Amino acid sequence: MVVISVMMLCFHQGHVESWLAELLKVTRLTVHDVIRSASTAITEANFNLLEFEKVFPAQVCIFLICFLLLLIVVHSINFVVCC
Question: Which of 29, 26, 32 is nearest to 60 (CA)?
Answer without folding.
Answer: 32
